Amino acid sequence: MSVSRAFAFLTLILPVVTATAENSRPQPIDSGATEETQNLLAHLHHIGWHTDSFMFGQEFPLSYQREMKGINDPATSDLKEVVGDHPGVHGSDFHFMIDKDPHEIVAHKVAALTAYESGSMVTFDFHWVGKYGGTHSWHKEDAKILYNVVNDNDKRGDVTWFYQSLDEVIRIVNEDLQFPIVFRPFHEMNGNWFWWGSKLKGGPETYKQAYRILVDYIKERSDYFLFCWSPDKDLTLEYYPGSEYVDIIGFDGYGQGNPKVHWFTVNDMIEQLEAVVDFAAKEDKVAAFTETGYDTKNNVDYHTTRPDWWTQSVLDPILASEKASRIAWVLTWINSDWSGPYTPYSGSPEPSKEAFQKFHAHEATLFQEEVSSRSIYAPLR
Predict the structure, then answer these.
(1) I need a surface site. Which of 73, 166, 182, 368 has the fewest CB within 10 A?
(2) Quick one: CATH architecture of 3-373?
(3) Residues labelled catalytic
(4) Digit-coded pLDDT (tens) for 26-35
């Protein structure tokens, strides 16, 4: 079945599957998941299907700031200085806990622990540095690694390297963090920029098998993981590894509402979020907008051109769609001296800060104080 025909079919059956999703209490794909991990999934499901709100998140909010003077004090953040609260979802990345200098590694771990202890959800992606190219970007030799893993071909040492890398991820969670996380491995696989992406040797079949191998390996060694699958700009189901390997179905897309961006519009955002929610309903999963933001290439600061972007191009269109509003969270990217800004900071123009304060105050957006009040790691009542 083509993707377009599949979406049409999902639209026809939405009332039935939505009712099923609303009335269910899904269990993690890891049957041995800790009680806190089970509770977290139940809360995510409840926020998505039973409330008219979603959590707001950002990548590295407690360790990076726009006007950086070294690693940030985890008690503050750009958003704390603008709206008086931290994000309700804390984004992190295993690359920054494995490949950076020891001081920065510790700082990112402390930030994640602080977010968890403050009641926020913590989600990890992994900009996995390849074995050959020295980066997470596509490299012709790194693009062969997963093909060798799924075929158990260790002539180049790729299989050994793959599992050793996962062992360090597992060690960080089991020993250093010891709390539930949402893990988004191999994200944006339908794009051509990562070594696990669309130019992967063996294509989607290799990708799906590698994702399954990763999930099975982690499940046998840790019970703190929920697993999220998130393509870029299009719900490309040919890469979907199967619902027995996924807890959360996500979607990444940047630049909607930017007049210079023509490849991803607000209408595209809503169309794809609705498709994600349709599919999540059918598979009894949680849906999420796992990455978004104004296009900030070449250091274009949206705060001076579209100060109300977060309301006009994200919040209002999502709330106007019964389907799209069923997501559990929205996460944006890093504010630092080398990234963004994706949210206002102390030096932003006043119209930008005032607009985001209204975004924060809206009843549909959940920041740390509101997420903490829900006790997302305790049983759902």
Answers:
(1) 73
(2) Alpha-Beta Barrel (3.20)
(3) 188, 291
(4) 899 999 999 9
